Structures are given as C-alpha cells and as structure tokens.
Amino acid sequence: MSTVTLTIDNVQVEVEAGTTILKAAEKAGIHIPTLCYLEGINEIGACRVCVVEVEGAKTLMASCVAPVAQGMVVRTNTPRVRAARRLNVELLLSNHPMECPTCIRNLNCELQSLAQSLGIRQVRFEGRKVDYPKDTSTPALVRDPQKCILCRRCVAVCEKVQGVKAIAPLERGFDTVIAPAFQEPLYEVACVECGQCTLVCPVGALYEKDYTNEVWAALADPDKFVVVQTAPATRVSIGQEFGLPPGSINTGQMVAALRRLGFDRVFDTDFAADLTIMEEGSEFIQRLTKGGVLPLLTSCSPGWIKFIEHFYPELLPNLSTCKSPQQMFGAVAKTFYAQKAGIDPAKMVVVSIMPCTAKKFECQRPEMRDSGYQDVDYVLTTRELARMIKEAGIDFTALPEEQYDDPLGESTGAAVIFGATGGVMEAALRTAYELITGKELPSLDFYEVRGLKGIKEAVVNIDGTQVRVAVAHSLGHARQLLERVKAGEQYHFIEIMCCPGGCIGGGGQPIPTNTEIRAQRIAGIYNADKNMPVRKSHENPSIQALYREFLGHPLSEKSHHLLHTHYTPRGKY
Amino acid sequence: MEACKCGEKWQELDKIIAAHRNRPQDLIEVLHKAQELIGYLPKKVQVAIAEGLGVSLSEVYSVVSFYAHFTTKPKGKYQISICKGTACYVKGSPQILERLEKELGIKAGDSTDDGRYSLEVVRCLGACGLGPVMTVNKRAYGLMKPEKAVAVLQQYQ
C-alpha cells in the first residue's frame, strides 16, 4: 500500500493514499467539525461544515470527501475557513425552527453544539421555512420535516445499512423533504420502524414517539398495578445517559430507579428470554428431528419480523412461531402472574423498557392480545426511561444496586446475551445441545457467533448431527443471508437481529450509538453473562416452576395459546 | 391505488420495462418513455418501474418529484404553458398566471377536474420579443395581457 505525506496545520502526517483529509487530520490529532458525515455510511460532502483550506486550491474543500495528495498543505483553522463554516451553519439555522428549549434533542443536538462551538451569536438571514406537517402515523416514530436539515444520514442508514429504503429526498430546492414516496405517512409504506434513523439524525427531525406521559399517568393511578420489564440490552446502555462509560453494567441501579419511579413490580425481560429459549429451542429440536421447515429463523426482533413480512413473505413458514420475549412476558404477566398474585389483569399495566422503537409497534399488533388484554401496554425506549429518571430528580449514579422481584425477575446468562448479535443463537445452542444429547456442554461459549462481523456461520456437532447455523445483524446483512438461503444454501438455524450489533445497537438506545459504542456494549453483555451463577435457560428455577405450575411443558397447548403466533405478508407498496 | 388511465398502453409499458430489467441506471430513460407513452406517471406506473428496474419506489419518486418535466397528474385536453423566463416575467407574466389560476380554479401544475385544461409554468420559449408568451397545445400567443389570455381560452372548449 503506497503512502502519502502531507502537512495539516503544520503537523506532518503520513497516511495511506486515498485517505480523506478528514481521516488524515484525525490521525494527526486535529479535529475538524462535521455534520452530514457518517463514517462509511454518508460521505457526501453536502453540509460544507468540514471545509478546509488547501494551499494552491482555488476553493475550500470538503475534507470528508477530498482525498489527500503527496505534499499537500492543509489548514483547518484560518479566518477564511472559520467564516465559511459559520456562514454554512448560519444558513442551516436560517430556516430552522428555534425551539431548542422544548426540542427533544436539546443538549444532545449536533446543530446546536456546532453553533455553539463555532461561536455563532446571531443568524443574519431569514430563510423560507417549509410547512410540511409532522408525521405521527406510526406507533414508534415521529418525523418532523421542519427541523430537518437535509443531511441525508437517515436516508443513507435506511438504504445502506438496513436495505429498506423507506425514505428518500423528494422535490427540490426549498421544497426538498425527506419522506416516503408520494409523501405518504410512514405507517402506509414498508418502513420497519427500527428507528436507526433516529440514532443518526443530528437534530430533532426523527425521534421516538414518547409514551412517558401515559406511563406517568398509570403510575399515578391508584387503581392500576403497574409492572415493568427491562430488556437485556438496556442494562448496558442506560448508564450512558448519566455520563457513565458506554457498556457499563447498571442493572442494579436501573432496578432501583424503576422502584423509585413507583412501579409496583420490577421484572426482567431476561426471564422471558429464558422462556423463549425453552420454546424456540424445543421448536428447533422438533423441526430438526421430525422434519419441519428448515432453516428455522428466529423471531425475537420486531423490526426483522416486519421486514420479512414486507420483503420476504415466501420465507414466513421458516419463521419461528415464538413471540418475542417482550410479548411472552406480557402474556405470562397478565395470566400466570396475575393469578398467582391475585391481581385483576384488567387493572394490570405492563410497561417495557426497550432498546427498540419497533417494540412500540409490536405491542400494538392485533396478534398480541392472547392474555385477553393487550399483553404489553406501553413500550419506553432507554432514552425515554432516562428522561423519566431525570424528570423525577433521581441521582442515578448514586443509587444502590437492587434486585429484580420474583418470580419474573429471575434469569440466566443465556438470557442477557439476547441483547447482542449472536446471543439468541448461542443461548439456544446451550439449551438445545443439552436437551438433545442429555450431556453437559463442554464449553458454554460459542465464540464463532459473537462479534460485529455482518454474517457469522458455525457448525455445531450435536449428537452426530452437524448443525449449520448462521447469524446476521442489520437488515442489509439479513437480506444477503436470505438470498443465500433462497439460492439453496443449507442451514438448520438462523438468527436475525434487525439492528447493527443486535439490540444493544437498537433504535431506542442512547445517542450517540456508533460502532465503537456498540462494541463496548457487547463487551458489557458478555461480562454480564459471565458473572451470572446460572448460564443456561433450562436451568432457570423460576422457568422450571412456570412449566410445573402453569404451562406444563414447552410447546404445550397453553404455551401455543399464549407464547406462539403467526405472521402475515404485508406487501411492499 | 388510484385508477390509471393507461388501458391498452400497459402492454407497451411492460415491453419498455422489460428492455431495462434490473438496470437501475436506466431509471430516467424509462421514466421519459413511460411518460411519453401514458402522458403522466401515476403511482401504479412508478411501482411497475421500481419493480422492473430493481429500485425502490422512494428512489423512483425521488427522481420524478425532482424534475419539473415529470408529472404524476394527467394532463388536460388543452395544455396551457405560461412563460416565466426573465423577459416575460418583467413584462407581466405573473399577473397572467394569477388571472388564469383564478379563472380555472387551479394552481400551476394542476389540471381542471373535467380534464379540459392543465396549467404549467415554463422557462423561456425562445420568443422573448413577443413576451409575455403563452402557449396552448404548442401554439404560441404573444404580447399577452390577463384579459387577452382569458379570451384566448374561449377558443378552446
């Protein structure tokens, strides 16, 4: 590989040929501000915030796309550069609604912090504002075109990472708007509601639909018994909202915070993840040994479910009939637990804390009312929970570590790894291996299915059968894997998670969520697994009791009624 | 999906699309041919093109909505174009447009409900000396005034 030497702000730096000025500056320890740039995803040089002066060049260059050259002399901090950056940001502000104090992204907005760091104290222009209405059509997402700065990051992530292409730039000039074709509401098009767009939006133009008011109201209602469940991925991300390093494990503080907010019982989705493994593992064994449709596709991720319904309906027979852990939890809480605790399920409110926006859509699906009520009433993202904790004045970092309530709070290491890509597969293998062979697994760690590689494959010998498994995360990779399946490649079991990195990278997670932070959260997840006394779902005592007292056995009639479902094709248009 | 007045032209459209199957780079060319054939690009046509070329509907509509040449609404029997190029503009074409919009009850870019007239704005018809210029189905009328333009329309019923 040939290298190039250049000078940036009098610092000499040697980089590979073809590197952008921005990356070279990073290597030299020089920070160049960016706005529309999203590494590897949106490198289009549109916003002109990253401009720099290159000796001998007539115009300023967008450093995020301009490649280095031998002997190049770059200056990133000259009066001309500063004036251009200011002007460009001022122009973005010239038609931006100045609603910062009431904006959902206040204090976590890239436009706001840029204006601050560039020292913009006034906006000299008033631009024509667009009057496109807010799109609140989905249960999960809100799109506010008036706040949009047209950076196209959302379009890029939807297209390049997720392969969904639900939104695109429409019209032109001042009328440009990022929206679905024909400006139809998101609910009417093939949007999977994964919320990856909300993670990359630099401003308040795309965000989760907020249900905190509904939850506050339930908590304040003396007639309601409010139960909460927390998804595996939330315990390694919530701390970030309170200044803790990404990936730090704050399970105990989160439980304590939920109790202080007034939830009557604090339970764990991890319990339901163990239950999912019992059902899905048994379903896999049944399909494998009795000749069912293979490969079996996992069904925990609601964005993935909506994706297969829209784009691969022909593979629906491969999909596990298991509901997701969130929905299994709701169905068990309003039946088994309500009975056991003597609570009228009509008065029970089930709230979920999820890393996910698509879960908001999932809980409102008509299939998810098998308890006789809506099984899960409200879904809050990690971000919404953090806002409630802040609003309540709870000092999160100073909280003691508390334990989940019994019995729906007991879980295993197999459940916590549901939060990371490969985790569901690994948890299922831990249980399926032992149930099929009757022998103890020599090693619980299936390293081949862990990590951020897009598609992972492994072969596991179970009692003489070479079981071929594959794991994909992000829908772009899922699409590649599904095309392989359609082309005849043989697998037995496939795990798909909608979001990059799995649920730890979900659309409801703290902002920023990037590749580095995803890796840190994954490390947190596997540490949490390692620290658990029990690491296999079938050894969870509360799960064993649930089967003994209520469900009978996995795939029983009662299990089928409460924990399984079927999905339906939706069409692409 | 709205009904499309494509009728027997659908087979012809299928042929156009088939010649460009799985070639996303041909999108603009196919849109031109389809509009030439059908007169406009309703959703049904855009879906067929998206499906055939292997692009998303959002990309197709992104291109259709970007270029003023493409239209998603059927054109009227009489297509009225008002020039808003510099010369016509300074000689009063905005007032003519305003008057015709009022007369027809539609905005530029739309068609009347009875399908008789459609109204659009164009940039320079190359007859600046005759400005303001208006055309009806490609026949040009120069030195227009608002009332004169309304009178011209009386000939087109």
Q: If you average the pLDDT of chain B, what whole number results?
A: 92
* CATH class call of the largest domain in chain B: Alpha Beta
What CATH calls the topology of the largest domain in chain B is Glutaredoxin
Largest sheet of chain A: 5 strands, mixed
| CATH C-level label of the largest domain in chain A | Alpha Beta
Globally, the shape of chain B reads elongated
Biggest sheet statistics of chain B? 4 strands, mixed
Low-confidence stretches of chain A: none
Taken from the alpha-carbon principal axes, the silhouette of chain A is globular
Which residues of chain B form runs of ≥5 with pLDDT under 50? Answer: none
User: Biggest sheet of chain A, strands in spatial order?
Assistant: 2-1-5-3-4
Query: How much beta of chain A, percentage-wise?
Result: 5-15%
* Tally of distinct domains of chain A: 3
- Total strands of chain B: 4
Considering the chains and any ligands shown, give keywords for the structure.
heterodimer; A: alpha/beta; Ubiquitin-like (UB roll); Alpha-Beta Plaits; Rossmann fold; 3 domains; 5-stranded mixed beta sheet; 4-stranded parallel beta sheet; B: 157 residues; alpha+beta; 2 domains; 4-stranded mixed beta sheet; 7 helices
